[in-house]
Amino acid sequence: MSAFDNLLAFQRQTEALSSVAERLAWDQETVMPRGAVEQRSEEMAAMEAVLHERRTDPRIGEWLDHAEPEDDEDARIIELIARDYRRASRIPARLATELARQTSLAQGIWADARAKDAPEDFLPVLNDILMLKREEAAALADGGDLYDALLDDYEPGTTQAEIAALFDAMRPRLVALREDVLGAEFQPEPLDGHFSQETQLRLARTCATAFGYDWTRGRMDIAVHPFSSGRWQDSRITTRVVETDPFNCLYSTIHEVGHSSYEQGIDSDHAFTPLGRGVSMGAHESQSRIYENQLGRSRAFTGWLYQRMSDAFGGLSVPDADAFYATANRVTPGFIRTEADEVQYNLHIMLRFDLERDLIAGRLDVENLVEAWNARFLKDFGVAVDRPANGVLQDVHWAVGLFGYFPTYALGNVYAGCLHSALRAAVPDLDEALARGEADPAVEWLRENVQRHGGLYPPRDLIERASGTDISEKPILDYLEEKFSAIYKL
Amino acid sequence: MSAFDNLLAFQRQTEALSSVAERLAWDQETVMPRGAVEQRSEEMAAMEAVLHERRTDPRIGEWLDHAEPEDDEDARIIELIARDYRRASRIPARLATELARQTSLAQGIWADARAKDAPEDFLPVLNDILMLKREEAAALADGGDLYDALLDDYEPGTTQAEIAALFDAMRPRLVALREDVLGAEFQPEPLDGHFSQETQLRLARTCATAFGYDWTRGRMDIAVHPFSSGRWQDSRITTRVVETDPFNCLYSTIHEVGHSSYEQGIDSDHAFTPLGRGVSMGAHESQSRIYENQLGRSRAFTGWLYQRMSDAFGGLSVPDADAFYATANRVTPGFIRTEADEVQYNLHIMLRFDLERDLIAGRLDVENLVEAWNARFLKDFGVAVDRPANGVLQDVHWAVGLFGYFPTYALGNVYAGCLHSALRAAVPDLDEALARGEADPAVEWLRENVQRHGGLYPPRDLIERASGTDISEKPILDYLEEKFSAIYKL
């Protein structure tokens, strides 16, 4: 066997094992008995130990030295394996273990602190994690920028300077739009009523099917925080149900279908290679966002959904499909990122991006974090945070060590904007299909131009190839201004 | 760290990983999307490769050479690790991985072939697996008997000669009882009616709770073939529902609760050591059988169940609890092992035991298996097999490589007979509790005398210590003759 074949065979098993670990995490969040926490942490730790040992196996280095690519695809595979090997090898096993242990502990402490609105219970642990992440970042950065080293794990090849420039360009138009919309005379009605779990889940399945979710290679379960999990032939979604707010369930479902369809849509040739996964968190989020927002919250699709929901729930509190469209896109002041509308969502991300850059750089101490969060929220949103659970304690990300992850959400929106422009140009009669509850033409275009490639192209290349233009904030901002000006009759 | 501590720490991780592999197998049988077969077989193979590498790690040999036990428990742990190490080291990694992959794939092929009544679709795959198993047996046997080498995996320390002698001793009395019962003037009525899935599952949960199943460390799902899965804090059961036959669901459930309670009942000190699992398949089956039959199908417990079922289904086709007891123990000609009554069950096992011994010894080819099965069935049961799904295709065992496993079912019955004798002597008023739907006194006795020990004693020792007598077929045969003579008014 050639060095490249050895590399590929070894990687194949590592990919399969990491897929097993992901399935185990799914199990924990959906079906695991509540008394199994201790056993499961032992099982997860054992899987992590095996994976870390494989990712830093010195044979990878030897094979990489001798691997000869036959084409661009081989070259990209080598590049991705080399990248993972380099990163994994820079992190001492002790640090990896300590991070795994601390973040698994911190998750429970965070949840309790949030429930009790007691940041003082969580901040010391967060500080420990921050110190470990800074140590990890220093090991990865090898003299370079700490935050960039972390960001690179989620959005390879992107720097905080690029993100900051992008966000600076977005902010003024988003802030202006937000002010116009919140100050508009016309305000959409909320959706009132009680919506049974059973019917919501049935509709969620209908929506997932409308967006091309392949049920033979997936399934849907309930989780506290919706997520998608798994690849290729086994990519599962989860959703949640709030009986006073059916949009929560339906749009969470469509969002996760976007993530899951990306994995289902990758060419099966790439399975169990480093090309067999979504290429970055930003690229992933571009799919979930375009499914959820540009398609799912479009006038055309909400028209179909209005009829389906009216039938299923025996009438709705809004009078017609136009009013329903406005309701599904309602912009209201709120503290919580995951409940934010398309206009305000990116402002939530910018707040976190700036704070976590300061934390990683050592410009902000954890002990001053609550104050910093609240001051920034007041400045950006004009409202004082009423309690920590609605402020710094709302997200799990930092508790589990995800620093550098937040900006990929906004990047996903920017990518989705670029893709949506190109999609609309390529499929001019898309709205006719969406109005019939059929997202197929859009899904096919995304599959062909984005999803099937998996990890073949770096994220920016992938989006630029698909959209035929350079990455820019203009399409998403134009889209938002046009859409919300119309809805709010500005 | 001492050699023994090293051994224990290493084993701890191996046990955790093997628990992960078991959870993955559970997933495959209960919730996995049907299109994920190929991916899953790759994942299972990767896990098997990791496990095999660990089980044959040369460091184990070194630690074993220097490990010094401080007490009998340490000595038993060393004995079990040494046994696994010796066995695993004899199997080439290629063979272990290939078996994992083939058997994971064969499961789906078997299920399709059974559904289509098409043995020709399955037999070629079965032949591949048989060849791999013979190769494995030869590697394990190291010059000894092939079948014994496989049997030893499921019932350590037992030989086919011992089993054959036991079965020879059982056969005449079983055959005579079967003939008397089938020819008796009195024949119990069948249970007629339609029994909704929802109500059956609710009753199944009630029964599981009555038998002490700990729901905080387990769950119940539906599977084609009911099974139990997992250990300690995460031991799950499965059941199935036939809407014309509620006994199928209820007694499958109680049976699996027996298996699962054994795992839940092992001292938590033994978790993640080789003592933290049921000691053999025969010992395991003794628990499931005694829960299902000696307790669950007793006059006392069926009296309680009659009332519960009458209430739940709004009346039953049988007039009273006595008639219901006979119905729940009805002996009728039938093709299917898993639906067989207590009298005929062991005859089904003997058929499989003889056929699989011939297959492994090379005295019978897979291409002649259908014919051999049908001829033997006609001889033993006096009825011609009507279709392959009722014959050779009915069991999944051979498809997943379980050769040498079947006899442990009958051994479990023999063990259950011994334990039941001792239990009745120790808890003379057991029937009073069972008549109230409370199995606690029996469960507590089994937990104290069998379950909590896990792997601490070899299987025969365990059963002999608990029952206070040598292993013998006499108690189970006496019990069967007494019970069925009374029911059938012989």
UniProtKB/TrEMBL annotation, chains A, B:
MF terms in GO: carboxypeptidase activity
EC number from the UniProt entry: 3.4.17.19
Gene3D superfamilies reported for this sequence: 1.10.1370.30
The entry's keywords: Carboxypeptidase, Hydrolase, Metal-binding, Metalloprotease, Protease
Class in the EC hierarchy, top level: hydrolase
Presence of keyword Mitochondrion: no
Catalytic activity as recorded in UniProt: Release of a C-terminal amino acid with broad specificity, except for -Pro
Lineage top rank: taxon: Bacteria
PANTHER family: CARBOXYPEPTIDASE 1, METAL-DEPENDENT CARBOXYPEPTIDASE
Purpose of the protein: Broad specificity carboxypetidase that releases amino acids sequentially from the C-terminus, including neutral, aromatic, polar and basic residues.
Family: Belongs to the peptidase M32 family.
Record's protein name: Metal-dependent carboxypeptidase
Originating species: Paracoccus methylovorus
